[in-house]
Amino acid sequence: MIFPSALQAYVCRDRVDMRRGVDGLSQLVGQSFGRDPFGGHMFIFIGKRRDKAKLLWWHHTGFLLLYK
């Protein structure tokens, strides 16, 4: 996958419940970052124990959610 050169990544400093899906994480984007989740930026959320991460990115026709 090739990411656009103008892509900005935002990391949430607060602990996040990793049970949240696309809808829950997109709500956090507005609350935590004050950004539009459909703006094309990448948002990274870290779990409570800091051993899990989720990446949320809007790409043309839908969200991409990566989980590690």
Helix count, per DSSP? 1
- Secondary-structure element pattern, one letter each: EHEEE
- Unreliable stretches, pLDDT < 50, 5 or more residues? none
Specify Rg, calculated over alpha carbons: 11 Å
What fraction, in percent, of the residue positions are helical?
10-25%
Q: How many β-strands, per DSSP? A: 4
Q: Please, what is the average pLDDT?
A: 91
Largest β-sheet summary: 4 strands, mixed
Strands of the widest sheet, in order across it, are 1-2-3-4
Q: What's the domain count?
A: 1
Shape: globular
Task: Look at the helices and sheets and give the structural class.
Answer: alpha+beta
Beta-strand percentage? 25-35%
- End-to-end separation in angstroms reads 17 Å
Question: Characteristics of this structure?
Answer:
68 residues; alpha+beta; four-stranded mixed β-sheet; 1 helix; globular
Chain-wise SSE layout:
Layout: E1 9-11, H1 22-33, E2 42-46, E3 53-59, E4 62-67
Parallel strand pairs: 1-2
Antiparallel strand pairs: 2-3, 3-4
